[in-house]
Write a structure and sequence with these properties.
heterodimer, A: 365 residues, mainly alpha, flat, B: 89 residues, two-stranded antiparallel sheet
């Protein structure tokens, strides 16, 4: 069977695009190929455009039924989650990023007086860097873990994620607050819909609560000491490894579960509740801004994840990195929430435009 | 370039590609053209007419004409300043 790259490239586009432009693009392409244009070159251009159209998210299609739009909104919202969950599980479940900081003490240092957790405070304890042993100094300030370039990369990625996620969060809150009263009014006859209006707030409270809880637990360090190759080695474990895993997994499941619920709720509302063009103007403007931030967040996440993976053995890491790994899932959840809300708001906007078209048709008719 | 091409009158995709090729000397692929057309249509700067033999013509809207005029005036102003600063060849 002969492979037609142009047909494959057209099939890569979203359904709305294929319905609207597929046939005419196929006709034009046939004309161009007939006059000597390279089929593969045309196909590569179309494939790039297909990626661009997917990245734009679902575009208002005035001919779609409500059911189809709901499916589109829900699947577009679920897509980033499906893509990032394996990354999060892979990164956070890896033992190297789950355990705590390892410090190697030189033979000159006396064994710290356990269980005093501040035993190290008056000692200079340098982390062992990759390929060389630490220099031991009897006194001086505590030296932080070595900072290699993957550490910096991960740190910058995490900083960007936090800043961009906060901007998105503010935008999301503005969108929600400007839509809330209108949605509430339109949902007067449905108790379920009135509950769903508050679902983003519920998701936000749950995610914040889980974050604070995890943070609280991480403030409870436990120290233990073992002898390895003639050196005393201390480990600072945030929680018992088993409990640590349970807590992290529970947080992950609860956070993502709440998020998924919020996504379904917003997609449901977007398909049922109709806003006027004036009411949808502010949410749409902010959603466009957030839509531009989402690709930047993807880049930041890539930096963060690559930085974590590229780090060497545990001894070359500092505690900073451990906290990156522990706190990594929640901004990710936030990104998904933001993306889902953008999709939903766009769907609401599509409904407003559809209504406007109907009104215009009736007026002109 | 798409708007400039449509300023002459309604054109379908193939005619647009050929016209832009003549204007700029650069070959434009359907992927690039339809990426632009989708955006212009959503912004209300162009609109599609009834399809003729699987080819749908597009035409400039009123808003599209205004946007094109503004853009061309800006380009002309910048070009004049640039040429003046360069001096005679």
């Amino acid at each position: 069977m002969k492979i037609d790259p142009v047909r494959i490239a057209i099939a890569m586009h979203p359904r709305w695009w294929r319905r609207r432009y597929g046939e005419e693009v196929a006709t034009i392409t046939a004309d161009l190929v007939e006059e000597g244009r390279s089929r593969w070159r045309v196909a590569s251009g179309l494939a790039i455009d297909a990626l661009r159209q997917w990245a734009r998210g679902p575009v208002p299609d005035l001919t779609h039924s409500t059911a189809i739009r709901r499916q589109v909104a829900a699947s577009a919202a679920a897509l980033p989650i499906a893509l990032v969950i394996p990354l999060v599980l892979y990164t956070t479940s890896y033992q190297r990023y789950r355990s705590a900081v390892w410090q190697q003490l030189g033979p000159l240092l006396p064994e710290p007086s356990w269980p005093n957790p501040h035993a190290f405070d008056h000692r200079a304890v340098e982390f062992v860097t990759r390929g060389s042993n630490a220099t031991m100094t009897p006194t001086g300030p505590i030296v932080h873990g070595s900072m290699s370039w993957p550490t910096y990369m991960s740190g910058i990625g995490y900083f960007l994620i936090t800043v961009l996620a906060l901007v998105c969060l503010l935008g999301l809150l503005t969108i929600w607050s400007s839509m809330r009263s209108a949605l509430w009014d339109r949902s007067r006859h449905s108790r379920t819909q009135r509950f769903l209006v508050w679902s983003p707030a519920v998701a936000l409270v749950v995610i914040t609560g889980l974050y604070l809880w995890a943070n609280y637990l991480n403030q409870q360090p436990k120290f233990s000491f073992v002898t390895s190759h003639g050196h005393v080695v201390s480990t600072t474990t945030v929680l018992h490894p088993l409990l640590d895993k349970v807590v992290s997994d529970a947080n992950l499941i609860l956070g993502l579960g709440t998020l998924a619920g919020s996504i379904v709720a917003m997609a449901f509302l977007a398909s049922r509740v109709e806003l006027s063009a004036a009411e949808a103007r502010v949410p749409l403007a902010i959603s466009r801004m957030i839509g531009r931030i989402v690709p930047l967040l993807t880049v930041a996440y890539t930096l963060w994840a690559l930085g974590l993976r590229l780090q060497g053995d545990p001894s070359s890491r500092g505690q900073v990195i451990v906290s990156y790994a522990h706190g990594g899932w929640w901004p990710l959840a936030l990104v998904c929430l933001v993306y889902a809300s953008v999709v939903s708001v766009r769907a609401v906007g599509a409904e407003s435009h559809r209504l406007q078209h109907q009104v215009l048709s009736i007026t002109h008719g | 370039m798409v708007l400039t091409s449509l300023a002459e009158g309604p054109k379908h995709g193939y005619a647009l590609i050929k016209d832009i090729e003549t204007m700029s000397g650069e070959a434009m692929g359907p992927g690039t053209l339809y990426g632009v057309l989708v955006r212009l249509e959503q912004e209300g700067l162009v609109e599609a007419l009834e399809s003729e033999d699987r080819r749908r013509p597009y035409r400039l809207t009123g808003a599209g004409a205004v946007a094109l005029r503004e853009r061309l005036e800006t380009i002309t102003r910048v070009a004049k300043i640039g040429l003046r600063r360069l001096g005679p060849a």
